[in-house]
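thoughts on these C-alpha cells:
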Amino acid sequence: MVKKFPENFLWGGATAANQYEGAYDADGKGWSVQDVTPKGGFGVVTEEPTEDNLKLVGIDFYNRYKEDIKLFAEMGFKVYRTSIAWSRIFPKGDESEPNEAGLAFYDKVFDECLKYGIEPLITISHYETPLHLAREYDGWTNRQLIDFYENYVRTLFTRYKDKVKYWLTFNEINSVLHAPFMSGGIATPPEKLSKQDLYQAIHHELVASALATKIGHEINPDFQIGCMVLAMPTYPMTPNPDDVVAKLEADRQNYLFSDIHVRGKYPSYIKKYFADNNIEIQFAEGDAELLAEHTVDFISFSYYMSTTETATPEKYERGRGNILGGFPNPYLEASEWGWQIDPKGLYIVLNEFYDRYQIPLFIVENGLGAVDKLVEGDDGELTVIDDYRIDYMNDHLVQVGKAIEDGVEVMGYTSWGCIDLVSASTAQMSKRYGFIYVDRNDDGSGSLDRYKKKSFNWYKEVIETNGTSLKEK
C-alpha cells in the first residue's frame, strides 16, 4: 500500500480546447493553426479547414460540457485542467476588443466546475495560436505577438479573476524546437526556419510568459501562475563518456525553458550555444528585468516517456513517437504508438526538477494512448476493460508517491485526456487516453455518446483514498 498523498493534493484530469471542444467556427470563433492541420501536429498544413480534420468537431464538449463535468465530479476531481481557445476570444488574434460570446462560454464552463468544487487550471495558449497570427505575422518570430498576447491575458485575468486561481502561460513551451507551427504558430517551413529566428521566437514567448506572470499577480495576488514544459528524462545509451555528454546536451535543450522561467535569466550554456551558432538574441528595453523579476510560482509538466541519447546516432534507429527525438531504450517496453513506458522516469523527473529549482511541481499530463474496445460489462452496460491503462497509471502514481516521500513538493496530478479526445500528434480518435469512452471513430462516424471505462471507478477510488489504494509491485 502507498502512503497517503498530501491532504491538499489536487487530483484531476486534463484536456485541450482544440482537441475536444469542436464548434470550430461557432459564435464568432476564428480559425487556429489546429484547424488547418488535419493529420496532427507534424502533418500537412491546408489552406482552410477540411472535413477529415476530426478536431473541427472534437467530442463536442462545446455543447456537452455539463454532461462531461458532471462525470469528472463523479470521479471526485479536485482540479480540472483545460485551455482557452485564443481564437474564440480574439478570432484573428490582433483585435483590440474580445469576442463576448467566447468569453461567456468559458464563464459557463468555469461556473459548472465550481458548482462541483472543482478548481479550473487553465492553459492560456495550448497549441492553438490564431491562424491569422501565423499567416500575417509568422507567429512568435514577430515581436508584435507579445502585445497581442498581453491584450489576451489581460482580458482573461480580468474576466475570470474570481473563478480561476491556477494558470499556465504556454503548453509544452519547449516543443517549439521540434513543432514550430503547432507550438509557436510559425508559418515558415521548418527546413527554412533559421536558428536565429527560432530562438528569437522563443525569446518572445519567454518575455510574454513573464509579462503574463506580472500582469496576473497585479490583477489578483492570489493567482498561482506556472510554466509548462514537456519533460522527457534522457539516459545515455552506454556508460561511454561521449554518450553521457550527448545526454547532457539533450537535457540542456529542455532545461533552458525552465531555467529561464524559474531563475529569470539565460544560463551560461545557452550563451555558448548562441555564440557557436552565430545567434544573437535581440533584447528590447525592459526584457531582462521582466524575466528576472517575474518568475513563475510553480513548474508544471507533461510526462509520457523517457528517451536515450548517443554520440554515435548512426548505430541506432530513432524512436517512434518521441516529440523530442532520441533513441529507444532496450530495457523498456513501448505503447502501440512507440512511446516507451517508464514509470521510474517520472520519479527521476520529479527529483531532478526539485533538486534543481526547489519550487512546487505539478504533473499536468500523463497517460497511456491505446486502442480501446467497447464491450458489454457484467452489469449489461457498455464499457472498456482497460486494465493496461490502470496498470500504467498505478505504476506511475506509485513513483509520484515515492518522490513525495523524498520531500519533493508535488501540487497535483491531472491525467491526460481524462475523456477521450482527438490526438494532438496524429489527429486520431483511436489513440485513446480517457477514463470515459467517446463513441467517435477515425472516419468521423459515431454517436458521441459517453461510456465509463473500468479505469473510471479505479481512478475514483484512488482519489477517494488519496492514493492509498495504489498498489506497489
In short: The chain has one domain: 10-464. The mean pLDDT is 96. The first strand starts at residue 10 and ends at 14.
